[in-house]
User: Fold these one by one.
Assistant:
Number 1:
Amino acid sequence: MQSSDPKSLPRVGLICHETIRNNQRTVITNLRRLVGDQIEFSCATGKGAQVPESFETLPMRMIEVPKLDFYSWGYVFRAARTLWLQDRPDALVCVSHPFPLGFGLLILRRFYPTKIVLRMTGDQFSERAIHSSFIVRIRKYLMHELIMPRVLRHADALLCVGSEIAQQVVKRGVPAGRVHVV
């Protein structure tokens, strides 16, 4: 959905953890540096979350979402709904992990028609190698080799930190035109 005022800037809603972690802060800060004042940002985070002091210099509206378990479907549904109703963003960016929060955004796209952008900052695909438990390794395999690629294919764009991660994403079936390296 495009902004109704032709003179208005594109609006982007950011979905973060309940508390903004360092890696999320880096992604958000770099997005602001890349686009400058060409985009209006609003950021949904948990109620009472500590907002980093460095964010005070960023022209971004912070939206508090009532406290829920930050890594749950309930949180992403509430955060996306709050952003959608208050700002009607042209795109929603999941600054957290693509699963479950990014996956939740893709489900919600049926109700709130907007572009969905997911970020990949770690090599989730080789995470199972660090676990010694057979059960955990199988669970990680199912998640990262069977479920995650299907989720990623439905995103409008992926922001990958580094070309190695971008290559892994393309190798798993995501069209290269949707994968962007930052």
Number 2:
Amino acid sequence: MVSIVNAGFPFFLLMLLTRNIPMEEFGELVIYETILVILIPVIHFSLAGMVVEYFKLEKLQFQKYVSNIIILIAPVFLIVQVLFFIFGAGLAEVLDLDINWLLLIPIYVLLNSFIQIPVSIAQCEGNIIKYGIFLLGPNFSILIITYILLVNFDFGYEAKLYAIGVSNICFASLSLLFLAKK
């Protein structure tokens, strides 16, 4: 049920964006989001096996496993970020994108990786409340923040990019607090 509700947020967001931003801006937003989606498996590479390991390891071993995942994500993120710094200007010029938003994309993916860890843990534990908070919360907040910035402040396509940033910062912080208590 939670996954079905979660799938509805992008649908509502799509309707909101297509009615309120010009086609050119929508195309630019799609390019940013495509780059973000391409980077997710690169930076999240070690998160996929977490659910399996949850059932194999003792609690202390699993805590070390999660810590190691975070440690492994850091250098991959740094490599990706350095590549974006080196090649970002050329990519931004070719795709006619704002270099500042382009440089934020790897940071957004890093923050999202911190959010995915408690999602996996809550799913394994069968804790529907925490699972719902960390799965639905970011997408719901992106929808609400985008709506506010787009409709009330006329931010254009950047409304969603700001919303992703704010949502990821808030929920990554909550995720790190959640993990610290684990």
Number 3:
Amino acid sequence: MSEVLNIEYLKKVLYLFGRQKRYIPFLIASFAIGSIIDFIGIGFVGPFLALFIDPDSVIESNEFFKRFTQEELILYAGIFLIAIFGLRVSVSYFIFRFILSVTFNRQIFLREELANAFFSQDFSNRLEKNSGYYQTAIVSLCTQYTNTSTNCLRLISECITLSVIIILLCFVDIQILITII
């Protein structure tokens, strides 16, 4: 874990991203969108529970709610809550799939580049070590790169989610944030 948090190590990983670096802003934007969907879902749980605890006060609090019966309001709120969390699951799936696609595609290119470097070496250098050593190094280093970059991107995703929720809590009610901290 200490390797993942090392700045020099992260710079090397970013260098290894090569042309795939262009996807990083898209990934970060998608992480932020997923975080906002999370926030909407979490923010809707309280009012949804209030519908069960004291539905009359919720219905009386807003003129729009008076159009519906208590059962209809609970049904629509439940459908909305399921839809929000369903959307969040879908967004998370596509984000993680995209992360894996980017990292595994880069792994393919890295293996190709390392194999080409191995074969372009002069013959005397190749004879110094067993060819199995180079093959093992290529496989293990590329796997380490893929695992590290996937975990780093997932960590970034979770940090962005946490940051967005905290920032939006500050806008909603600073007292709630202070209570949580």
Number 4:
Amino acid sequence: MDLEIEQEGVGQVEFLLEIPENLKRFLVLDTVTVCIRGKGFVALMQEFRDEQFSAWYSIFDIFQGPVILKARGAIAVLELRTALRNTIEGTWEMQPIGSLEENHFQMGFTPHVATRAVFPVPGIYETFDIHFTLRFLESLGIDYGMLARCSEKVQRDYPAELTRHSFECTPLMRDCIHRIL
């Protein structure tokens, strides 16, 4: 993983060599797993990838909230962010995203990762993110106005959201995500 993760007000998180017992039920076969722990939380992040995308299924067990995590990295991504369970707040590439409610998604591009995720209350939070390469999206022939404007910003290495609003996942989208997992 090419990310640096820290807990706001606490410092660096601990990377675990073993998966905590309470998170083993969320394991997806054939993924690269990363487990972290900090004050009041433990998390399991699982990645599966190919040359055109990287998908992450992550579970955050917050047992003493709020927990604020900051991630940084020199990774350019066009990201589909989905909250599967509970509402996550914070900033994405230092831009306020408001609340990403359960079963809602957002999409945007960033030339580098600078995310601040706020888990406001204790509970299990699940997310599913897909990081697409711009080359992949262009190969699909997608050339809608919003994507074109986003793509122009991408070419200049500026963060760009397709929209500031989140959208509700349709039942079919939720079913597809769970079938992937």
